[in-house]
Amino acid sequence: MPTFTSYDGTELAYHVCGDPAAAADPATPATAATPDLICLPGGPMRNSDYFGDLGGLAASAGRRLILLDPRGTGASAVPADPATYRCDRQVGDVEALRLHLGLERIDLLAHSAGANLAVQYAARWPEHVGRLALITPSVMAAGIGISGELRLQTARLRADEPWFPEAYAALERVVAGEATPENWKAVTPFFHGRWDGAAQRLAAESDGAKNHEAGAAFGAEGAFDPPALREALARFGQPVLVLAGDADLQGPVSVLADFGRLFPRAELAVQPAAGHFPWLDDAKAFTTTVSAFLAD
Prior knowledge:
Rossmann fold, about 300 residues, globular, alpha/beta
């Protein structure tokens, strides 16, 4: 598995998905016509295994996917200083990866909490970003809140599902701040557009794939400066895709529409019948949307 050394000496790993020849030699540079797509996972602080091949995105987009294991997750080393788990301090990891790959510009795809890292990278090094695809993104770094009522409203779109009564009652406890571990487990179906075998396997693997210590530090005090970030994003002139799932209570469509308006050149795409993992809910719809954005 290929690795590189980040700014503080921590050895980080990434997975390559795409052209078999390129995968065999991860140091092979991307061409100008088909640049690498660096993919940042969510969690926060979850390894990149859950991406799989992002529904076949490498083949659909003609791209080599570079799937980063954040520090302290997957095959990446645990840093000497746990304070470097803080989101703003991981921005240097993305820059170190860009330098390692020998790319002047990178296209970035980020999912969920990973979007907080991606937008901070775009704000700090805008000259090194070509395109930015934010998939069911967290909006924490931008200081955008999501009300409990809006989450409940989004959840009610699933009222016809057989698991809905138990899951909705648990969600009401979560929103009220009274959740038990059992309640958190019971709301899991809401994160998926289809609560089928693939979704259930992903959910079962979720807890063990996260570094919980790192996740707690990810958003620690000082990690985000929303006013400064908003100013920087207003100057970010590169194309941005904000992809929402119409049933995603983690990132309701109206909230992600507001988020997209922070960028001068953002487009909002809403994937029907999708939750928080749209490539799992409908791989063809997901790859068609993202591939078209990357090809423009």
